[in-house]
Design brief:
268 residues, single chain, 12 strands, 39% helix, TIM Barrel
Length: 268
């Protein structure tokens, strides 16, 4: 039985073309009833009507560092599926300026606009200088309870007085688990929100599990109202994250995309 959505569902989801999908699998994983490669995953993502995907070397989607030929190959694979990758998590960033330069050079060759990081304080001066030199953005990601960037204030302290190209990637699930309203984060970081990890959880506590976006405690309509209010940039990624069903996520992702489409409509 084909677990993929029918054409009508795909067309409904196609309205969400600016939504990225954060691909969580490694080189081989499970997608519905099929064992899939990254190439197959890109095909499924494109079939859902999406135009962007957030890939990461940390998840073994591609290598870092990489040769020019390897980067050209990945860009060609994306283009073949009509996909773009404008945001990627690249680590490590440190106080070592030349190591950080290698990260920015890689990002430039891959065609990124935003590099997602968990930036240690000693890296910020170097990152700020490189943001200006390469005209690329840094998105500081809140990783949730127990991590360096857990609250709005934690991220604010890193952004204070810095180049506007140093901003935030707001993870709605991690903020909710930390007892922080992600909508407040959007407004706090207005003009510096360079990515969203759209994640829903079942409760506002550190142990809350993921759930299908639109079926948990996240105010999904409020999220899209906030993104409109802050004029979320068109070259940023709004990445759907879903980890609750690692064996057969496809149907759940279709439900999530339909919930997002309904929320977008209701937010107008």
């Amino acid at each position: 039985m084909d677990a993929r959505p029918n054409r009508r569902t795909i067309l409904r989801s196609a309205a969400l073309g600016a939504l990225a999908l954060a691909c969580k699998s490694g080189p081989e994983g499970r997608f519905g009833e099929l064992t899939f490669s990254i190439e197959e995953a890109l095909g499924f993502i494109a079939e859902l009507g999406l135009t962007r995907v957030e890939l990461s070397p940390q998840a073994s989607h591609f290598g870092f560092p990489a040769t020019d030929d390897q980067i050209a190959e990945m860009r060609a694979r994306l283009a073949a599926h009509g996909l773009d990758c404008v945001t990627s998590g690249l680590e490590p960033v440190t106080g070592d300026h030349e190591m950080n330069r290698a990260v920015f050079e890689y990002a430039r060759r891959l065609g990124l606009r935003t590099i997602m990081v968990d930036a240690p304080p000693e890296s910020l001066d170097s990152l700020e200088e490189l943001c200006a030199e390469y005209d690329l953005r840094i998105g500081i990601h809140n990783h949730g309870p127990g991590f360096r960037y857990n609250t709005i204030a934690d991220v604010q302290s890193a952004l204070a007085g810095r180049d506007r190209r140093i901003g935030a990637i707001v993870d709605t699930g991690h903020y909710t688990r930390s007892g922080v309203d992600p909508i407040e984060a959007f407004h706090t970081f207005a003009g510096r929100v360079y990515g969203v990890h759209l994640k829903d959880v079942l409760a506002a506590n550190p142990a809350a599990p993921d759930t299908i976006v639109g079926t948990g405690v996240l105010d999904l309509v409020g999220v899209f109202r906030a993104l409109r209010d802050i004029q979320f940039p068109g070259d940023a990624s709004l990445s759907l994250e879903y980890e609750a069903n690692e064996v057969a996520p496809y149907e759940d992702i279709v439900v999530a995309l339909d919930n997002v489409a309904a929320a977008v409509k209701a937010s107008r």
